[in-house]
Every structure is written in structure tokens, then in C-alpha cells.
Amino acid sequence: MCFQIADCRINDHCLYDALRTYLIYNRSTDISDDDRHAYAAFAHCVHVLHNLSVILDYKLPYEISLPEMMKYRWTENLFDTTVFKINVSIVHLCLAHGIPSEKISFHRPFYNLFNLCGKFRSDLNADPPVPMTPCKESPQLAKIIKEEYEILTWEDTKDMDDWIKI
């Protein structure tokens, strides 16, 4: 299934191989439109996620900094860690705002955001969110998150002290 966020297309099938290859091995100025769209959609997803957490006064389980993300020197593990953080954060946000766990697919963040926005459109007078975790709501989602976490080689960004202020 293809989604469009801020006029940027991305296939939401959890196979981000082209994006991974572009970010890790081929960050040149000569890129395809698909790579450009996928990276922009990925960045917009993080931006939307952050904005929703602020607007809805919801603390996300992981911090994902868009400005830092733009400066990353991507590695396989850093890419996987970032995708995991995005997926878990979106799952938490969806559960906290009444999306049933059966309608959430852990590996499809754009689909989940689409459903969350649909929920907001259909129910503008929603009650304040109830604190909830995937473990309480859905043992199946908790199991998927745990399995994904266990196969992940966690990597966070490192501060780059070699930047010079001009």
C-alpha cells in the first residue's frame, strides 16, 4: 500500500531496503525520485509524530530528533533503531487514543498514522487519553515489540563535536 505524506510517496510495507541503501551507502546528490520521496516521507513521519505528541500532550516512549536525524551518519543498526523507535512510538500514540490493537500493524507506521488521523476526524470531541501500554492493551503487540527489540542491535547517535559554528 502506498501512502503520501506532504506530497511524498512511500510504500508502507516495512521493506525499507531502498531507503536503507540510499541513507547508508549512496547519499549523493544524484538520487532517484523514489529515494528522495521515501526519505522525505520518513522525515515528515517523524515531524508529524513529534507534533502530535506535543498537541496531544503525550510523552512518546522514545525521543526522535528530526534535526539530529538529518545529520546522522547512518549505519544499518542506527537505521533499524530509528525505525523501531518510530514504530513503537506510533503504536503507543495509537493505543493511547483509542485505536484498537487489532487495527494496528507494528511494521506499518504510515498505515497506523492514517488510522489515527481518521479517528481524530471522526471523533473531534475525544476524551483525554488514558495512559496505556501495548502490554496492557494487547499481549500480541507486546510480543511483536519484544521480538523486534531482541533482534535489534541498538545504536543511538553520537554527538559530533567537530561541527564549527560559522
From TrEMBL:
GO annotation (BP), single: autophagosome membrane docking
UniProt protein name: Protein kinase domain-containing protein
Annotated Gene Ontology cellular component terms: autophagosome; extrinsic component of omegasome membrane; extrinsic component of phagophore assembly site membrane; phosphatidylinositol 3-kinase complex, class III
Molecular function terms from GO: phosphatidylinositol 3-kinase regulator activity; protein-membrane adaptor activity
Superkingdom, taxonomy of origin: Eukaryota
